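Appendix C: a fully annotated inverse folding record. The material below is reproduced so that readers can follow the format used throughout the book. The structure is listed first as tokens, followed by the designed sequence.
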């Protein structure tokens, strides 16, 4: 009986180590390739079996929820929070649109969140809800200030973001300079047009 406690302690330590190895491997895989990376590859990178992922996290959804803060939420919410600190509404729109498209290019997992690839993840859907709320807030303020084309809506911004997510996830990835150039074209296209008196 005297040896039972150390044995249990070793098992708990092994379980904690396995969990941390899986989390670290998942963060690296999801950041590099998105949330749909095969779990076999995550397990191999962590040095464990796929069954261990299910034992520790209950499967893909549990694993996503264990790491989505580090993989997506921290950066995305930082963009939203910084957007809200910008006084000039035109600069606010430009920053948000550019920063969001930058995240989509750099972090494939962001596109899986925006596409609601795993709707059974409550945390993923909460991130989507917060992002949608930020979109609505920004577009309402920008339309009221005339910083956007009057016909441009929050639904239009959502469609542009989703179209971009689909293109990056399923299409040929463009070179970064071409991608940034298209970001500029899109931003120019949605901005409000100066009135005749403004031009005059």
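Designed amino acids, in order:
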């Amino acid at each position: 009986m005297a040896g039972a406690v150390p044995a249990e302690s070793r098992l708990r330590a092994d379980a904690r180590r396995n969990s941390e190895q899986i989390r670290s491997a998942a963060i690296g895989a999801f950041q590099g390739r998105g949330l749909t990376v095969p779990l076999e590859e995550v397990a191999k990178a962590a040095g464990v079996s796929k069954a261990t992922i299910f034992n520790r996290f209950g499967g893909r959804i549990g694993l996503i929820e264990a790491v989505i803060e580090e993989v997506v939420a921290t950066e995305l919410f930082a963009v939203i929070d910084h957007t809200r600190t910008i006084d000039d509404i035109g600069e606010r729109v430009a920053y948000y649109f550019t920063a969001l498209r930058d995240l989509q290019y750099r972090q494939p997992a962001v596109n899986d969140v925006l596409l609601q690839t795993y709707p059974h993840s409550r945390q993923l859907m909460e991130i989507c809800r917060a992002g949608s709320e930020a979109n609505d807030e920004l577009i309402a303020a920008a339309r009221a200030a005339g910083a956007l084309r009057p016909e441009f809506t929050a639904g239009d911004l959502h469609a542009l973001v989703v179209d971009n997510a689909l293109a990056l996830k399923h299409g040929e990835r463009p070179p970064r300079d071409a991608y940034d150039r298209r970001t500029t074209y899109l931003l120019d296209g949605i901005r409000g047009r100066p009135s005749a008196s403004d031009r005059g």
